[in-house]
Structures are given as C-alpha cells and as structure tokens.
Amino acid sequence: MIGRLIEKIRETGAPIVVGLDPQMKFIPGMITGPAFSKYGETLEACGEAIFEFNRGIVDEVCDLIPAVKPQIAMYEQFGIPGLAAFRRTVDYCHEKGLIVIGDVKRGDIGSTSGSYASAHLGSVTVGNTTIEPFGEDFATVNPYLGSDGVKPFIDVCRSHGKGIFVLVKTSNPSSGEFQDRLIDGKPLYELVGEKVREWGEDACDESGWSEVGAVVGATYPEMGRTLRAIMPKNYILVPGYGAQGGTGKDLKPFFDGDGLGAIVNSSRGIIAAWQNEKYADCGEAGYAYAARRAVLEMKEDISGAVFG
Amino acid sequence: MIGRLIEKIRETGAPIVVGLDPQMKFIPGMITGPAFSKYGETLEACGEAIFEFNRGIVDEVCDLIPAVKPQIAMYEQFGIPGLAAFRRTVDYCHEKGLIVIGDVKRGDIGSTSGSYASAHLGSVTVGNTTIEPFGEDFATVNPYLGSDGVKPFIDVCRSHGKGIFVLVKTSNPSSGEFQDRLIDGKPLYELVGEKVREWGEDACDESGWSEVGAVVGATYPEMGRTLRAIMPKNYILVPGYGAQGGTGKDLKPFFDGDGLGAIVNSSRGIIAAWQNEKYADCGEAGYAYAARRAVLEMKEDISGAVFG
Questions:
Q1: Number of domains comprising chain B
Q2: Which of B48, B142, B165, B265 should one mutate to test binding to chain A, selecting the residue with the greatest count of A CBs within 10 A?
Q3: Angstrom distance (rounded) from CA A81 to CA A38
Q4: d(CA A260, CA B282)
Q5: What is the CATH number of the domain that holds A254?
Q6: Spatial CB neighbours of A72, under 8 Å, sequence gap ≥ 6
Q7: Which B residues 94-113 touch A at CB under 8 Å?
Q8: For chain A, how big is the Rg over CA atoms in Å?
Q9: A29 touches B at CB < 8 Å
Q10: Per-residue model confidence as pLDDT tens digits over B272-295
Q11: What is the per-residue pLDDT across B41-95, written as a single tens digit (0 to 9) for each?
Q12: H or E element: which one contains A18?
C-alpha cells in the first residue's frame, strides 16, 4: 500500500492528506438542516450531516490529493450512526480513488491488537464469507504496549497489502511528558523510532519503502530531522500543520532529498476553510470550494518550502 | 463512580471483573445456529450471537460480581453490527445492576480525546437533546500522548460522575520494551504512575478514592507492589489473571491493608470456562453455569490469597 500511496503522491504532486475530522460546527446549515428535518435530534441526523459534508469536500478535492485521514473519534462520538458515517466515508473515498488512512490510534495486547487490525485493515470470516469491517488502507497505531501490540497489525499489513503509521512523536504540547524523556541518553521517541525501523524491516514493498511508517508532529521539526535519519525507509505522517501551528518551512526536515518520505496532514485548515476570513467569499454554499482553495494553497506552501 | 464500584465490591465480597471479550469460537452452536439462520453469514449474525452469549453469562453471574469489562476490539472486529452488540451489552449489564468498564484504550491529542471521552463516558448534545453514545461507567485510557491526551477524559469524569483507568504497566510479555526503560533511574511505568496520582488528585469522590485509576498487569506482582505505594488513592484494574498466567498469590501486592485498592479481571477463564475440561460436565447448554462456577472459584482463590 505504501507504494500505491507514493505513486499517488507523485501523480498529484501533493504530499498532502486531508483530515476528514468533521465537527458539527463546521457543517453548513444547508447540510444540517435537511438532516435534522429527516432524522430529528438524533445521532442518525449527525451521521447523515457528517457524511454529506464529507462527500461535498471529497468531490472538490479528490483530484488534487492522494489520501484522506478520517479521525475516528469525531465519528465515534456520535455512536453507532457516527461510525456508520465513518464506514460510508471510507467507501466513498475509495470510489473517488483516494487512499484512506484511518486515524484510529489503536493498540492493545497481542490477540486484541489482532482484532483491531482485522477490524480496520483486514477481514473477518463468517462461515464461508469474508467481510472487511471498516476497510481502511492504513491505520495509526499506539506503541505503548510494545512489539506484541504492534506486530499483529504488521501481520495483517502483510496478508492484506495494507500499512500502518506508529505514533512516535505526537504534535500536541504535552507530547514531551513521556516521549521526550531520556533513556540511556536518548529520548523515548528515538527508541520508538528505532523500533519502527526494526518492525518495518521485513515489510518493504516494491517501492523500497516499508508498510510500517511513523507519526511525527510538524510542531517538532528538529525531532523530525533526527527521526528521518533513524528511519530511512519508513514514511512519516506529519500532523500539526496549520491549525496546530506547523508551517511549510517546518516541513523540510521530514522529507528526504527526493521530496519523498513524508505526507502532511491538515484537517481544520481545509475542511473548515469556509469559516476562515480569507475564504469568506466562498460563502456557506461554497464550503467545499473553499476547501479546494485551501488545499491548493497548502500545496504551494509545501512545494515552496520543501522543493523550493 | 469509584465509590459505587467500591460499594459493590463490598456488597459482593468480590474484587472481580468479568471480561466480556467474546470470540466466535467460545460461543456454543445453540446460540450461533439460530443467529446464522436468521441473519445468514453476516456481521449482524455475529453481533446477535455475541449479545446472546453475553446475556446468558450476565444472567448467571450478575449477583456475584460488581462489574464487567467488555473489550471493544472484540466487537469492533465485527464492524457496525459488532459495535451495536457492544452498546446492547452495556445497556443489558446496566439493567442487571452491573458497573461497566469499557476497555477501549483510547487516547489522542486534547480535542480528539475529548470526543472519545464524550463517546464513552459522557454525552453529546444534538439540538436540545442530550444523548450518551456508548454509556460506559469507566474507560481505559492510553497515556502515551501525555497530560493533554488524558485530561479531557478527567473533565468528563468530573462532569458525568465517571472514572478511568490509565494504562501504566500492561500484562503482555513485551510491555517492558518501553514501559520498563529507566528514566533518571526510574522505570517509565513509575513515572506514568506518578502522573496518574497527580492527574487523579482533584478527582476523589466521597469514598476518598480517585476517579482516575491505573491498569497494572497481574503478571508483574513486584511492580504492582511499587505502584500500589506510588498511587495510594488510585484504584488498580488488574488484567492478566488466569489465561495470561497470573494467579491468586500474585495479587496480594495490588491490594491495600483493607483489601481495597484493586479489582481483578478474568476474561477467557470465565466466559470460555465451558470449554475447560474442569467444567466439561456443564456441557454446551450449561456454558453460562460454567462461567458462574469459574467466578466462584476465582473468588475463592483471590479471597484466600489476598484476605487469607
């Protein structure tokens, strides 16, 4: 799957992933109105509004980007109907040719991680029928439980041609509390980075890159430089651009000399662009077009900084 | 909620939680048969079988124990219908007076953790309607992202009278890879334990115990002793008893002098007891009664070792 992602990054010239993390306050009344009329004040109405909102954005940006990253928490908060909207979003993005990174941050002891891996990247067999429960192409994974919490995901990546991104250094302000603490003179995130390299060694595809990547926040460019060197064959998914404070010039260290090696996520900055003064002329009806303009601007910012 | 849990532990005399982690291979044909007849080879059939299996066990053990702990991965692997079975299980356990610990191991950056907290412990507001998406009483939380990944859960605990158990030292073999590494001479799990104490300080209820507890595996009793001392007001949820290798005598260090401070989980050892030679006389039809006998035996084992 990493090879396919790289191919699509090359096609689009955009190492960009759009975070489909809808909040109700981002969704225009022209979408929520009909959903509430149809379903009342229910979780079903929220699920319907979220999916319609996503569909509008996906239609406008699918030719510009290789991948989307729905954050499952934003769907899970609306219970079963929210998760049904997540599943519909995955399917719709696939129809539109996009790669889907499920930002699920799952991780547990071995057999339980295996179940999460089946849920998001693999399949379950019911009698003689094989079913993909959620059907993402990549998933994010939490490393706190160590190798036996991560390896079941890698097994499913191998059997189903999928990939993962393991949390190494997250973009949030308190990520340093544990991740930056020194162990034998090295911060924990470097040890996790070394493990990512090790876990991913036997999972390289024809591109030469590993199906096991890492999450490293745009907010920590110096750490990105170190981790890029520690993990030469592991793609880095970079959150924290835009609303969280990361800028184009922070991104260069995450990429290798060929402009490969990283893919940068923006969520709110794209999907809620219509609420930004800069795109106010798009209006509510143009929320998806505002997202398109924000993607084009992000592409230019990144190209200038990384490849300029 | 921690006060209610302690009250129920006292009532039942059982610091025991039954892990409702159903696998299809644990479910007798008398349950799967009708589910597959009705729904075919679908995820709906799996969800129906899982719920019916759980219901039988809950009916047999609900007078013996204070709480259950469904592991959401076992439901998530069956997609939306699996998660609907999770929600039905939570509701049914509540009807039967049980406290429900959602073993969800969620954790993300601040605002996203807030969404997970609303999903599992809190509520969302849709127009003028307030809805509890999953409705558990406690949830397990992953600490890798630091304070701003955990605090949104604590905010919801305060506003909704709920609790959490933060992963400190997990029961699996590779948990030591990161958790045992020394930082300034102290293992990471101790630092996380200190943070659990700190996070929980302002969240004690009338029992004097904190709504913020910790997960520490039964497979590491010496670490349990240390962590019990580091976190004097934080309850410990202890997985790893039974099938994972922990025994009654390993448990004493997790409890304080009053026999409080810990609650021990067993999953497979209870819910799949009917497949154990020891309870073979229960037969398939007596799978739930076998679970009851296994709970009674576990209660005796723990009482003897901890209070004997």
A1: 1
A2: B142
A3: 14
A4: 61
A5: 3.20.20.70
A6: A83, A86, A102, A103, A104
A7: 105-110, 112-113
A8: 19
A9: no
A10: 999 999 999 999 999 999 999 999
A11: 999 999 999 999 999 999 999 999 999 999 999 999 999 999 999 999 999 999 9
A12: strand A16-18
